[in-house]
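User: If only I could read backbone structure tokens as easily as an amino acid sequence. Underneath my words sits a plain record pairing an amino acid chain with its backbone structure tokens. This is the protein in question:
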Amino acid sequence: MTSRTLVTYPEPPLPSAVGLGTAGLIYGCDYNPEQWGPATWSEDVALMREAGINLVAINIFGWSHVEPRDGEFFFDDLDTVIELLQSNGIGVNLGTGTSSPPPWLSTRHPEILPQVADGTTRWPGGRQAWCPSSPVFRDRALRLVEATVQRYGSHPAVKLWHVSNELGCHNALCYCDVSAAAFRRWLQARYATIEGLNEAWGTAFWSQRYSDWDEILPPRATLSFLNPTQNIDFSRFSSDELLSYYQAEAAVLREHSTIPVTTNFMVTAHIRTQDYWQWAPKMDLIANDHYLDNRLDVPHRELSFSADATRGLASGQPWLLMEHSTSAVNWQPLNRAKTPGEMMRNSLTHVARGADGVCFFQWRASVQGTEKYHSAVLPHAGVDSRVWRESVELGALMGRLGEVAGSTVHADVAIVFSWEAWWAADFEAHPSSELRYLDQVQQLYEALWSMGVTADIVKPGAALDGYRLVVVPSLYLVSDEDAAVITDFVAGGGHAVISFFSGIVDADDRVRAGGYPGAFREVLGVRSEEFYPLGTDETVSLSDGSTGSLWSELLHLTGAEAWVTYADGPLAGVPAITRNAHGRGVGWYLATAVDPAALIGLLATITAEAGVVPIGTVAPGAEVVRRRSQERDYIFVLNHTDQPIHHEFRGFDLVTQESVDGFASVAPGGVHIIRQDRKTS
């Protein structure tokens, strides 16, 4: 700690549900005081109190400010800001400041800069211009972390350590010589012998056999297709390398401090480079960043998926939304402002699905730099603005929702989701470049969402005890052991829905011979001999009057019954959807992408048979989720439409502060949060 005497103030009230303090929900923001002068700091903190902010992330990009020259540390401004926040009862989420190196470091040591697949260097001027394998970068970064934690490691204002920022957002894959050497070390640890690697990578193909470790390179740009297993292993290595970096920072923090340590994940539709199933056990608290992606057809459904996936990473326990936006972002082709009420609705969707706090990037809108058109709690327009008024309104509501903290979401349905399968399924030289793994996951997820069925997102191989139905979308790559968990689940009485392009290859991307869907032939009672992918504008008629798209295959029954068949095309009369009794359970196979309405109808049949009961009747466009504490239920009803919707949940609405006895109306774009005492409801 500094030699200066710090004034002691009462500790800020923060939630115990995520391990940070007393009971309640977190309402927070990311603050960059280095962009403003001391006079603005006092004004900002006063306004933070008005907005109900109780946790502020600082020093996220502070390296060049805290260490302006090599080995010279300047903490005075950070001291002042931390003391100012503490004196106002606001806790600190303290960044280690290492997310982007200062100019002096890359100037003195250009070898830390990352290279992309074609061998060209990516230069400073943006952010994250560093190679995850660079020993020079790691040495300087850990020196900064140690100086920071020695100063603030027992400071009463600091409630959470924030390692770096969005690790891997830009620099997850580095192809430089330093990374190549680290990749070879990782491969030696994985395979032990060069013969083992050759077997796993199938290097008999195209004369790729290696005789020495030094011959191996990252999958740099080639004249033709890459070796797919090499590509998958490089993705695994790259995720592990960044995780190793996180753990190095965390080790320094834990040596000098008992404050919880985390970093902000990016569970989104457009970033896939980290296998967060491997990362999650290393976090003291699971935190996620999510920004509404208006490039998607229905952005708020992807938001729900992200929240459910983050809850899965937290093993069902409460988690923290570290960043989202009050309105527009700055990095999409068209950066749409949020409509009135949308920011509150987005925020409460995360809370509904298990978050015990929501935070924004950022507090005050920047007036310079790349993110100057990114929205903020305090926008360019100041306090006389809709965004500010809605932020204050949300802060007040988050304060009233304190009793929700620590409650959890329970689901009867699990969706198996795999970052490794995502990498492998989307690589080149496959039957169809139109098949994208995440699209298939989200189509099945969104059908359940539309039915009001909440689903947990689980990793391959996760225990499925307690679930009635498991959904397996296009799980192209899966190990024998993880596939067996699903087979055993069905044999023991569970129900499963498995969609096309599942079980095809093992962990080494080796095709399972004998017919598709490989690892799941037994549980599904089918065998497919050939894929018949469909073009972008092609569809196939099905015998129940619905249509299929994207995919079809020449399927044979080996015990299953044909539920629906192809009605036209080259596979007319061939099964397209099958049902198989396996042990005490049932396995369903979807051999084509069923149109949305028919998929909802099919899943309604399957969930009913499995004993899955939706929370309640769902109007089109409404989202209904239940959180449960020891004594109470909290029913979140979110209206994503421009028309009123109705529900019949009874209880007390924490939003309107009124009792609800039967039929109630939720305003367009509005939210109800109905508290129910399970003893009387």
